[in-house]
Sequence to fold (352 residues):
Amino acid sequence: MRHIGSRSAFLAALLLVLSTFVPGPVLAGAGPTVIATISLGPDENATAFALAVNKRTNKTYVTPGAETLSCESHIVSVIDNTTNTLLPPITGGLNPFGIAVNERTNKIYVANVGGCDDRPSNIVSVIDGATDTITTSIALDGSGLAFVAVNPKTNKIYVAVNGGCCASGTTVAVIDGATDAVLSYITVDPDPFIVAADPSTNLVYVTHAGVDKITVIDGSTDTVQTTFSIGSEARGIDFHPSGKYVYVAARSTNRMVVVDARSHAVVQSVPVGLRPHGLLFDPDNGRIYVTNRGRCDDTPGTVSVIDSETLSLVATVQVGTCPRFLDRSRETGLIYVPNASTSRSVSVIQDK
Fold:
């Protein structure tokens, strides 16, 4: 063992004490670390499947999906990001699922998937970010609404009409972000699931549940431009701000896939954890964060952290059980990870 001088030993001991007992941010350069875990409270109908951060109010909105034991929840949980405390919940439609914030209008769009039995929902709940109340309920053709995305370039909202438990949907609804009027329905392949909009290219990407296919929609005409495959069922999608690359969580192969945004060819892939789901790109540090939900049992899930320049795994962060669709505060850089199953919490990650 290498000898350490008494002064160095004292300083090392002092740093250990400070890092153990002083709350707040971790030391600069410490890498990605969970700095808080926010419980969603005693109500078992409040769990964490997906979430969205509202930059304008510094709040996080959390949906339960169809994850509760009863498979019947109407709760959207609300977190004050300044204090990491739970605020009064919002009662909405049946099993709030996908969620997105329109920062231009300070409205939050919640797609309600419906029950696990034959009780589908066709309602998008619109929450006023200033009052945290539902001000509008938009009824769509079809049922089993899955994910929702806001295209900030056009101020349009896209909703995957999946069909839910007992049907197979084939459309993506387009909503005017200014009036909340339904503009059109885009016909796509069956079971549209996740929707993500790239404002730099004005393209909208749609994954399909259970199959290896991604649909690309032209945001200027709202027509299907092309479809492509990645060799796996796709989950979360995000984009490089240059518009050159699309990053996709490849659920079936346990990898993060890099797609050329022009050719839609897979150019690289990086191994991650078991059953990757959520994905986000952080333009401030150039890192990609992928949630690995695992088996959704008592085993903690993880977040894989990837350097987008070298496409190398730089860290694996342990979070709660069954983590899925995460988001990031552009103000603070903090990353919010929803944990379902036995955790029913939100992990807050700082990466400096």
